[in-house]
User: Fold nitric oxide dioxygenase from Paractinoplanes pyxinae.
Amino acid sequence: MGDLGRLLKESWSLVEEHQDKVAGYFYARLFLSYPDLRDLFPVHMDVQRSRLLNAIVTAVQSIDDADKFTDYLRALGRDHRKFHVEPEHYEVVGGALIEAMRVHAGEQWSVEYDEAWAEAYAKIASVMLQGAETDTNPPFWYAEVVAHERRATDVSVFTVLPMQPFEFRAGQYVSIECPRIQPRLWRPYSIANAPRRDNTLEFHVRAVGAGWVSSALVRRLEVGDMIRLAAPMGTMNLDRRSTRDTVFVAGGTGLAPVKSLLEELTRYNRTRWVHVFFGARNREDLYDLAELNRLAARYPWLSVVTACSDDPTYPGEQGNISDVVARYGPWSEHDFFVSGSGPMVKATLKTLAELQVPSIRVKYDSFTDL
Ligand SMILES: NC(=O)C1=CN([C@@H]2O[C@H](COP(=O)(O)OP(=O)(O)OC[C@H]3O[C@@H](n4cnc5c(N)ncnc54)[C@H](O)[C@@H]3O)[C@@H](O)[C@H]2O)C=CC1
Assistant:
């Protein structure tokens, strides 16, 4: 770890325990110095409270890998155009963050820490700004909900039609906001189809715990609603030059990007064997199985294995999908795509490492919806 990385980690450990207070101070400082900024945030800050702070801290802490994150940060800058973020906002946010940490760190805080955070933050902000400034697309797209279907108690699949052309690559995700239901609350979801001639986009959403946006999208979204979409992000794309057979491992609605990549494969694949491992808690949550089976019946190169982790009488595989994949194989020559909750992705990456799958052949995008 470089010196800068060490200083950042060291200083964050001084305030880590008081994250809530740091977040409270940070937003108060932000809105005090820039009352206009309040309009960019949702009315109720409860859910939002730790999001921005966590995102910045994670990005800053990864500064040693900044080169690796350049594409991500540029895309994040483009994505942030949906908030109408101006260059001066970046400065205010950085200043408020450092002040909030300094105030809560106690006597051990030093000028060195101030400088380290300022340097790392400036680097990240400049890459994000570059991404935003070179983007010629609209800051967001309006899209009309044209279909909405409840597939399980907590899972819905819905389709939208963007009002202007919306370009993306199979496997990417976008932030979504529904102004009628929850203005200014944006959450990322994967697009569950490859680009289509009719421009429609499909999303799979599960209403989880305190996930306000997800619950609203599952329970309250209606055909005819207008939602807003931000710029597409993510690098979980197919490499058309690869001739390797491919394995997709999906947990729950993490199936969405897998469906998108499968749809792309149906357009050109003739030679690669493709295996889908789809895990859910119970059989009802295997919400898209009928469609997967239909694809497998039509394309001889595709096979599907399903598993339930909390349904002992399910006749298919039992257990977490990260373990189920290890019962098949050998996999050391395959390309892998992993999609699901953070813990599911982590567990699957561990299994694959144990199975000697080189990490370079494993693609995943990890994002969590709260
Ligand atoms: N909706 C979308 O477009 C996308 C969603 N995701 C993420 O996928 C997740 C889906 O959540 P749910 O449907 O509620 O899935 P879930 O929590 O019900 O889990 C589904 C399956 O994933 C596996 N799994 C879960 N936790 C695991 C762990 N700790 N270790 C090993 N395996 C585990 C198990 O096989 C389980 O049956 C969410 O976290 C969401 O953020 C990811 C990509 C796209």
